[in-house]
Amino acid sequence: MEQKASNAPSLCTWKPNGISPHVHRNVQNDRKKFLPNILEAIGQTPLIKLNVIPRLYGLKCEIYAKCEFLNPGGSVKDRIAYRMIQEAEEKGLLTTGSTIIEPTSGNTGIGLAMAAAVRGYRCIIVMPQKMSNEKLFTLQALGAEIIRTPTEAAWDSDEGHIKTSERLQKEIPNSIILNQYINPGNPLAHYDQTAEEIVQQMNGEFDYFVGGAGTGGTISGIGRRLRELIPKCKIIAIDPVGSILAEPQEINETHKTFYDVEGVGYDFIPTVLDRNVIDEWIKCDDLESFNMARLLIKKEGLLCGGSSGSAVVSAIKLGKKLDENQRIVVLLPDGIRNYMTKFVSDHWMISRGYMDPKVPSGCESWWNIPVSNLELIRPDELKNGTTCKDAIERLKNNKNNLDIMLVVNDNGNKVRGYINLKSIRSGLINGEVKLSDPADKTLIREFIQLSSDVNLGVIAKLLEKEPFVFIFDYRKDDEFIGIATQEYLMKFIDNLMNQI
């Protein structure tokens, strides 16, 4: 086909009511011509047949994906947010001037903040630190107030997102926690709507439903309704490695207590999770979840999130046992928007150990050398009671040209995080701390940490964007060894090249 200049004269012959040389395709739309507000656009998400990925894995069965990430707020949680607000309004629990408070991993918060924006309520969302900044920014854009809690805080800890929400609710007049963990509106939204949509879209002809378990409302609500409408259909629940929701309890046993995938799994059993409705549990780890989510994007064009990868990985594990006459429906909970700086990013995938960088030409001589061969920096530790003022002076005079200080636990054997000049100054500027406050109030808990046996190539790729990387010896009870910097890496490479 001949390429023409982008500003070439138009050859279009269109005239009002003229004869068109083109083939026109009419789009069928079952929705109303207009909707009174965005909340009425929730639901009726498409069910899409997966074509490429089942072939790649040699499956005989068919897999269909319920694309909940196409809800207006970007996730399946839009459904329960609207349902819980409707029921609270009907019961008189939400009135003019009310404040909605919710502990959430982010998606329920986005759904509630969207509904609060339409309905005119104040909205406060409490979510763990590990949840993506994209969720944070979306919530802020919707007008919600955000409070972050430590990722490592247990569900029933005073520092956790649930207890923090309960404390706020006592302090703020005319406020309510809709509480997705115990609210019947959570599973009911899926019993009444999501399950019915799936059955209608598939004409009732499918054999398995696969979905993630977080609060448990989705899998329980859909599972209960499918039990009634399609008794032969088996309900398969997904639980990430590191979570404790699955049964039997033995399959949850692992040394791992943290997982990166968001929106599924918990360290307690939520009230709305009905495990009796589930026929089988499948455990899924971060590595396979994120790589499958990227494959769904690349091969099927489905712009989904990490837990969608968990769902499809589990469906494939199941599908390997099935024949060509069987069908699986899998639910994809949320979309790519929430994770642009997480699993969508090669840099993030490499930093978390989920992807190996390619070896550039000319770097072969040092690329695979373990980082344990590199000279590492051991920063000073912050002493208990050090004020922000004193910490600033110490950081300014740091001999390592690295303006950070370690914050360790009371036993001195675990790194909790670090402080630096930026974190202290930001706290001062934002009014979060005073010069006389303890400096550890500006603690940075999130940092890139790698094993001492990782190769220098991985370190080099990360140091292209990161100022430093924390190195631990995972064979010695996660002992902190030191910090790798680009300066010390280049010195090592230069010395190695001079010896060749």
Automatic annotation (TrEMBL):
Recorded superkingdom: Eukaryota
PROSITE patterns: CBS, CYS_SYNTHASE
Pfam family, one: CBS
InterPro entries: CBS_dom, CBS_dom_sf, Cys_Synth/Cystath_Beta-Synth, Cysta_beta_synth, P-phosphate_BS, TrpB-like_PALP, TrpB-like_PALP_sf
Span of domain CBS: 370-435
The protein's required cofactors: pyridoxal 5'-phosphate
GO CC annotation terms, alphabetical: cytoplasm
Protein family according to the UniProt entry: Belongs to the cysteine synthase/cystathionine beta-synthase family.
Protein name as it appears in the record: Cystathionine beta-synthase
Source organism of this protein record: Microctonus hyperodae (Parasitoid wasp)
